[in-house]
Design goal:
By secondary structure, the chain is of the alpha/beta class. The chain is built from 5 helices and 11 strands. A 6-stranded parallel β-sheet has the order 8-7-6-10-9-11, with helices on one face. It has a 5-stranded mixed β-sheet with strand order 1-3-4-5-2. 34% of the residues are buried.
Length: 216
């Protein structure tokens, strides 16, 4: 069976046909050689998924459904690694897991400030690859601006003891070298995934997985 593309097409949508961007046209036409008239799925990134027909430069709309986000409403606040490839890995995996929001945080030991537009592009690609309905929001903030986060700290309580995570949850993951003692003391909730020191991307993805899938 031919692979059926899943396209991210931001709203608002026209009533009958959605016009896609040149990247979609290039990929489907030149790379996939996808036939006009074949089925595609599409999403607006805010919870709607549809199944329509590829026209060569757009999609004729078909049946559409609304997809709810499963709780909790998770924000991962992460100090970005220096490597662009490692940043992209974090974005793609968090998007695949339907994390609601990624906030790149600037900390005392941060060495780089990422570009939100680049992260948003990576998230959109991962949304299409994972056939999701919700595009992860991306922002940049100073660490002290976070609202009562759970801070990743090897001295914190085991994350599994948090029980069932509900409502709005923010987990902060530090840079290479970790948070400073001053930063650790800014917030009272500290969580850990065992006694080892994890790389930033390992900690971010593992913590998100436990919160979203590991508790019952």
């Amino acid at each position: 069976m031919r692979h059926q593309p899943h396209l991210y097409v931001p709203g608002p949508w026209a009533p009958d046909e959605l016009k896609t961007g040149p990247d979609h046209v290039k990929h489907l036409d030149r790379v996939l050689r996808y036939p006009i008239g074949d089925p595609v799925s599409y999403t607006d990134g805010t919870g709607t998924i549809g199944h329509g027909t590829w026209t060569g430069d757009g999609v004729i709309r078909g049946d559409e459904v609304s997809v709810a986000l499963n709780p909790p409403n998770l924000t991962m606040a992460v100090a970005p690694p220096k490597s662009k490839e490692r940043q992209r890995f974090i974005v793609e995996k968090l998007q695949e897991m339907s994390v609601r929001r990624l906030v790149w945080i600037n900390t005392e030991r941060s060495q780089v400030r990422p570009r939100p537009d680049r992260s948003e592009s990576w998230a959109a690609s991962a949304l299409e690859q994972s056939r999701g309905a919700w595009l992860m929001q991306v922002a940049v903030a100073e660490y002290p601006e976070l609202q009562n986060p759970f801070v990743a700290d090897v001295a914190g309580m085991p994350l599994a003891e948090g029980g069932r995570w509900v409502g709005d949850v923010t987990i902060a993951v530090g840079p290479e070298g970790g948070f400073t003692e001053t930063e650790i003391a800014m917030f009272s909730n500290h969580v850990a995934l065992g006694s080892g020191v994890l790389r930033t991307e390992t900690a971010a993805i593992s913590l998100a997985a436990v919160v979203l899938f590991g508790a019952s």
